[in-house]
């Protein structure tokens, strides 16, 4: 533009200097300003000679310098002419306010985006850390399972957690799982036996007779730790003071050092989980074969083929005797395992021990014991394979066996009568409600079966025919 003004200056220099000139500024529509001069039409004759040309050139140079400064100022503000003025300090305030708000909102969005990206990074780091912890926990659980219950091994550990609101209990001995090596014999449930007047539920029984019916299980309590997966609970059919027929006893049988015998004033107290006393046995017992009879706990000491009597009043072992040839610690258990080689039982006639020997080739051997001295009074060898049944009990001198510890609809499948030394097959329905029957005993006073079924302590009502 400056060059154009110089050309214009040269033309004016040729024109008449004396004529007055008018200057005009306009917008060319592209953001640039144009300046123009108008002069009266020159007449060569009236123009003066070139004496004033130098003065006019000086004015034009000053004007060109001023225009150059204006152009520099407009370029610095980002526009020319009127638009440059709008972009600068002279812009319309009504238009500037929305632009400022938009710029502020955009800046806030950028800051929010930055915060979200930081939060996303933090969450990803936490996710990775949680994944590592879960993987570590899974490995620890696998290690504990492998350490606790490998086949044939006994590892340490017991879940001692108590439910909310329960009082603290006695500190248990270190426990571990016993071996659960077993064979299963599944016997299909049969039709109910035809009920007779004496065998129908609800009828009254008197004296001894044959088992003809077993009712549905009634739950009295539930163990609250892994030590109660299987165990034994009982009442004394012939108690001695200060104990009564309501006094209830319990042993949680999972562990390598099972020494705790829990005493409850009644079954209701057992259901609430608060023992009146805990007896610590001088010897650890093995499995679920113990019974309470005439003021004594009869049990098999661990890893032995002996039977011991623990006096509940004197809190001491008063008698102990070996069972000749009896298998122990997994030689001849019931089908569910659990080191149930030696099982004790009580009926109307007294104390019994159920076991097997190498001579009997795994068949059940039944012996009658003196409850004071534990001397064997008489022995019967049956033809019932001990590993082939889940459990057994004695009623009125007859041994009865349970077909399966896990089948929901099991049966009482065999009976051996010691009076005639004969056995016969049965098919009396028997319900395993919780699918892990580890103990069954008969209480001749209450005429019920006591059982332990996967943490649950239950009873079964029964009916006997008349002899």
Oligomer: single chain
Give the end-to-end Cα distance, rounded to a whole number of Å.
Answer: 137 Å
- As residue ranges, the low-confidence spans are 2-19, 43-50, 79-89, 151-206
| Element order: H for helix, E for strand | HEEHHHEEEEEHEEEEEEEEEEEEEEEE
Q: What class do helices, strands and sheet pairing give?
A: alpha+beta
> Any idea what the shape is?
rod-shaped
Number of helices: 5
Give the strand content: 25-35%
Helix content: 10-25%
Tell me the number of strands. 23
**Largest sheet entry:** 5 strands, antiparallel
Rg, Å, rounded: 53 Å
Q: Could you report the average pLDDT, rounded to the nearest whole number? A: 79
Structure description:
23% of the residues lie in helices and 32% in strands. The protein is rod-shaped and about 155 Å long. Strand 15 and strand 16 form a beta hairpin. The longest helix has 56 residues. Strands 3, 4, 21, 22 and 23 form a five-stranded antiparallel beta sheet that branches. The chain has a four-stranded antiparallel beta sheet with strand order 5-6-7-8. The chain has a four-stranded antiparallel beta sheet with strand order 9-10-11-12, with no helix packed on it. With 467 residues, it is an alpha+beta fold. Helix 1 runs antiparallel to helix 2. The N and C termini lie far apart (137 Å).
Keywords for this structure?
467 residues; alpha+beta; five-stranded antiparallel β-sheet; four-stranded antiparallel β-sheet; 23 strands
Could you give a short description of this structure?
The protein is an alpha+beta fold. 23% of the residues lie in helices and 32% in strands. Strand 9 (291-293) and strand 10 form a beta hairpin.
